[in-house]
Amino acid sequence: MTGQRQGRWLALYYALYFSALGAFMPYWGPYLQQQGLTALEIGILTATIQATKVLAPNIWGLMALRWGLGRIVPGAALATALGFLALLWAHDFFSIFLITIAFSFFWAATLPLVDITTMEWAERSGAAYGRIRLWGSIGFILLALGMGWLIASGGMAVFLPVIVVFLLAAWWSSRYLPFAAGGTATAVPQAALRNELRRGDLLFFFAACILEQASHGPYYAFYSIYVGDHGQGSMAVGFLWGFAVLCEVLFFAVGEGVIRRLGLKTVLYASFLLTALRWGVIGLWPDLPWIVAVQSLHAASYGAFHLAAVHWVYQRFPTSLRARGLALYASAAYGLGGAMGALAGGWAWQKLGGPETFYAAAALSLLGTVLLLVALRPGYANWERVRVSLEKARR
Asked: Transmembrane ranges (predicted)?
């Protein structure tokens, strides 16, 4: 298979995977609300999806070393589609909870493993990861908009079947991805990974990423409900999500050039600060035109953050540990951070209300900026130095 053809299969997989995600994310909260679930239960279910990303990518990464990506990714993709299909027969919190654990465990397997495949392919081919990844964002936009129209026409009955169709298509395309023979990389001693994880810059960086993604919890779980409460219908909800991801697409198209020009540090700092601004504006001014304008900041809160973070982690780990490093990043940021944000967001939404919950999200991102400053400070490149400096400070 030629390099150009391999790139097309990767782009197609991202487009189909994120099409399913674009149909899912804007309407998961409203779908659960229609099932009669409370805000706290919606927060728990959203947190469950994120929580599986803490362990699942690492478990699947280890399995891929043994059986190869060519088996793991298609198998997990098919199991995800079947899990969503099972939701058609689940209507109470407990049954939805159990099925959500199952499908999200398999869903969490695929993206980090495809990401490392794409990064390795891009390095071999002299291509840009962002130019492939942007096709996922295009798919997300089309389905976020399309699902809004379908729901407006046919109601929530179309929600699950559409997602299943795209997940099955993603499974089909995953069989043709340019996986490395035998897995992502050869097994490496655990001591090598432990040595990397003792370094302070890495720990503070992961902690900052956790907070940045935790700040997204109220957005992913309740944004569609929030704007609906302020007079917007399903078509408007789809437009708002689609517009946000369009801005993300534009950043992915030029992101590598922006990083080269401004540097990873500047892009990371800007993404954290603009994320805080985004949540603050949503909390203060939830009506048009502010709520449209602020969606453009998704280019920073997700696009710039993810692209810069993936490059930082990829460069930070030695070659033999890059797959594990990206899996750990996904587990920490999107798993632990996402779960914390969704769970805390569900509690805050029920106890405090929508605007106050978004103010708290803005504060989380600002706190993450402080940790990022520590992580990227040259003097804090080793955890042992941090420990010694803290001991001296106590004296």
From this structure: 12-29, 35-56, 68-90, 96-114, 134-152, 158-181, 202-222, 234-254, 266-285, 291-314, 326-346, 358-376
